[in-house]
Amino acid sequence: MPPRSLAAPSDQVSSRLLEMSDHSPTNPDSVGALRAIDASLNRAAEGLRVVEDYARFVLDDGLLTAFAKRLRHELADASSGLPGDSLVKARETQRDVGASISTEAEGQRGDAWMVALASLKRVQQSLRSLEEYSKIGGADVAGRFETLRYESYTLEKALAATRSAIERFDGVRLYVLVGACGDAREFESLVVALMAGGAQALQLRDKQADDRTLLARARALVALTRQAGVLAIVNDRPDLATLARADGVHVGQTELGVKEARTIVGPNALVGVSTHTIEQARAAVLDGADYIGCGPTFPSQTKSFDAFAGLAFLEQVAAEVRLPAFAIGGVDAANLPQVLQTGCSRVAVSAAVAQAADPGAAAKLLAKALTPDNAAAAS
Ligand SMILES: Cc1ncc(COP(=O)(O)OP(=O)(O)O)c(N)n1
Ligand SMILES: Cc1ncsc1CCOP(=O)(O)O
Ligand SMILES: [Mg+2]
């Protein structure tokens, strides 16, 4: 055995734990610590597999499946520095006083998410136990278990947000961005026409209007959409979204992050994030965003761009992300089939609808093309 000072951190842990089992095989304290580590390793790995199966088979989400899988592999890697033989030798399943203790709640799960959530909690508890008992080795491996525990919190947040957003955006395929345009009556009749045309989400987006006008428009938007069950989102401004009691806020890459925006709008409001690359889309999912805008897809009459994420980006997102994703930028009835062919079935549009001679009719045309049957036929 190398002198202690030359040993790698994981070897130090091994040797310390080996000493515990080899030199004091009957010391209940030593054997007990090994048993706790052995049981927690098994619990954490098994729990991660249950969570991975939820991301894979229930959500069908490649990104979150890969995240859970990575945690499982990193757990195995961290545990490779522990004395595996001694852990197994210390195992005494038959004599485990906890094996036969179970609560009524453990035998009942309301749905697949409850299964995954219970497993996440077990994973977190097991990682904490691993972290504490492996400190007996006095080395880095405890820190690795701590990092894994924090990553499991991120996974829980992203899974919960994805699951809830899939429900809240069920049937939301046409999302229209409107300016504060003209006077209040003009704005309100545009909103009514867009809802009649089948828009399922509306965003107040105006870079020119003053705050009082924006707040008045946001309040009018909320009043009109609430009765119809249409989502009302305010662009850029979590403060105005909160004051108007809108369903949520949309933020860009250089604006407030999800966490900060949520601090203002509260935990139940929607936070949407603009994404232009697959890395940004992944980050938005892990930050707990409720939906993402993906673009710019095509040249836009509403905003000018030097570069376009294009259809390839939509394909990347559709391949791995289940969080609701809206293609944005120059989308219209003519290029919609190209969007649908990427696997993206939701769009956020402005000019093609709000600037049309008949906004209601333009919305109706897009909404019809986005119905599940029509979208499937086009893709
Ligand atoms: C649904 C949706 N997606 C993207 C955007 C663009 O937001 P951002 O990048 O912050 O640009 P501005 O709209 O603020 O100019 C959006 N508004 N909505
Ligand atoms: C705000 C924004 N961000 C990316 S594209 C876009 C404008 C969308 O409007 P249009 O549908 O008219 O291109
Ligand atoms: Mg913005």
UniProtKB/TrEMBL annotation:
Specify the Thiamine phosphate synthase/TenI domain's residue ranges. Answer: 175-353
Q: Where does 4-amino-2-methyl-5-(diphosphooxymethyl)pyrimidine bind?
A: Q203, L204, R205, D206, K207, N235, S274, K303
Q: Which cofactor does it need?
A: Mg(2+)
Q: Which domain of life is it from?
A: Bacteria
The UniProt entry's GO biological process terms, in alphabetical order, are:
thiamine biosynthetic process; thiamine diphosphate biosynthetic process
Entry EC no(s): 2.5.1.3
Any one GO molecular function term: thiamine-phosphate diphosphorylase activity
Q: Does the keyword Transferase apply?
A: yes
Keywords tagged on the record: Magnesium, Metal-binding, Thiamine biosynthesis, Transferase
Family, according to the entry, reads as follows: Belongs to the thiamine-phosphate synthase family.
Q: Which HAMAP family match?
A: TMP_synthase
The name on file for this protein is: Thiamine-phosphate synthase
Highest classification ranks of the organism: Bacteria, Pseudomonadati, Planctomycetota, Planctomycetia, Pirellulales
The protein's gene is named thiE
